[in-house]
Design goal:
Strand content: 15-25%
Oligomer: single chain
Radius of gyration: 21 Å
Distance between the termini: 23 Å
Largest sheet: 7 strands, mixed
Number of strands: 13
Structural class: alpha/beta
CATH architecture of the largest domain: 3-Layer(aba) Sandwich
């Protein structure tokens, strides 16, 4: 990308950020949008405000912007296909496409087009909302959604187009219980994990579903007790929103199945359990063997003796890892170079330096 192209890309992304800031600076407009998001997302009003305060990037650093722009390919036209699970994700997805192309077309989620529609009213040519895709050879498509949806999309794209597919994934928290000897350490870890879990009621790909506990089953039970209390307290401050009929069915099925393996502690705003499991075999046997917790603030604590083999078993699906100590973070980065790695409590606020999900090839997949 030439210097002139970089400057143009930077201007487009900065304009998007300015539009977002102006949109939310208006108290009446913010209130209108929040009411709309409560209706479309199922989140509580407190959950919507929490996400806006902690997960929507309005002022990224210069270094983050340079990384975002440098990592984007140089293309003439880009398409963005948005999901509905995380209502603030539309901004970052649009920023990635604007960093790549001067002409950007967005197909918003029918279930929640709120943010994109509000931005489009003020965008004046920055991007265009479309109902139908008219992708041509050479166009790049950034698509976010479930693996089945992305698989169907592949079959419809023309030869010569490029797909950047961001599919199903989840986060894990890693806690070194052997290093948690200081008074209040377990409670602090639990509170941080609860903050990561309450965002979007666990619907996002950054949301932790599992807690890998280094340090033995007995200490894992102590962590479970602390985590149950932390989730209950977090639920009082930021109540869980409404679950869809499908989500309620998944929750019921999960609890019934899990009860065969481990006792479950109901927190009033989710659940916690400790479940011994050989994670090293998950990658070979498939994700179904994991019995992954559903959305709705449900967590499984899995005692482990060795970190790297456990991470290797989960690698295809891991987008984010929260760590209880810097030494752990270094080991995770070495084992999972494509995962987002942060301290506990910071899993839902990654750097604004490119797509949240860094698993796909940055160059995309040639169709």
């Amino acid at each position: 990308m030439s210097g002139e192209q970089e400057a143009a890309a930077r201007a487009r992304v900065q304009r998007l950020l300015a539009l977002t800031r102006a949109l939310l600076a208006s108290a009446p407009e913010r209130a209108r949008l929040c009411a709309r998001w409560v209706a479309t997302t199922g989140l509580s009003s407190e959950g919507v405000e929490w996400a806006l305060a902690h997960c929507l990037e309005l002022a990224p650093s210069a270094r983050e912007l340079e990384s975002l722009i440098a990592g984007a390919p140089r293309v003439a036209r880009a398409y963005v296909i948005l999901p509905a699970q995380v209502f603030v994700a539309a901004q970052r997805a649009l920023a990635v496409a604007l960093a790549a192309a001067p002409r950007v077309f967005v197909r918003a989620s029918r279930r929640d087009p709120t943010l994109i529609a509000a931005l489009a009213e003020r965008a004046e040519g920055l991007f265009e909302c479309v109902e139908q895709l008219t992708v041509q050879p050479g166009d790049h498509v950034w698509a976010y959604g479930g693996d089945l949806t992305l698989g169907a999309l592949r079959s419809t794209l023309p030869a010569g187009s490029v797909l950047h597919a961001h599919g199903s994934g989840f986060g894990v928290a890693v806690v070194d219980l052997g290093a948690a000897s200081a008074p209040g350490a377990l409670a602090a870890y639990a509170a941080a994990i609860a903050r990561d879990t309450l965002c979007f009621d666990q619907r996002g790909c950054l949301s932790p579903r599992l807690v890998l506990a280094l340090g033995g089953a007995e200490r894992a039970q102590a962590l479970a007790s602390a985590l149950a209390s932390a989730l209950a307290e977090a639920g009082e401050q930021v109540p869980r929103g409404q679950l869809s009929a499908e989500e309620r069915a998944e929750q019921s099925w999960y609890r019934q199945c899990l009860a065969c393996f481990a006792p479950i502690v109901d927190t009033g705003h989710g659940s916690v359990c400790v479940r011994p499991l050989e994670l090293e075999n998950v990658c070979a046997s498939g994700l179904a063997a994991l019995l992954l917790p559903p959305v709705g603030r449900h967590l499984q604590i899995i005692p482990i003796e060795r970190l790297e083999p456990a991470l290797a078993g989960l690698e295809p699906w891991l987008t984010s890892v929260g760590c209880s100590a810097p030494a752990l973070a270094g080991r995770v980065r070495a084992a999972l170079p494509k995962a987002r790695v942060s301290e506990l409590g910071g899993m839902q606020a990654p750097a604004f330096d490119g797509p949240v999900d860094r698993r796909p090839d940055p160059a995309g997949e040639l169709i």
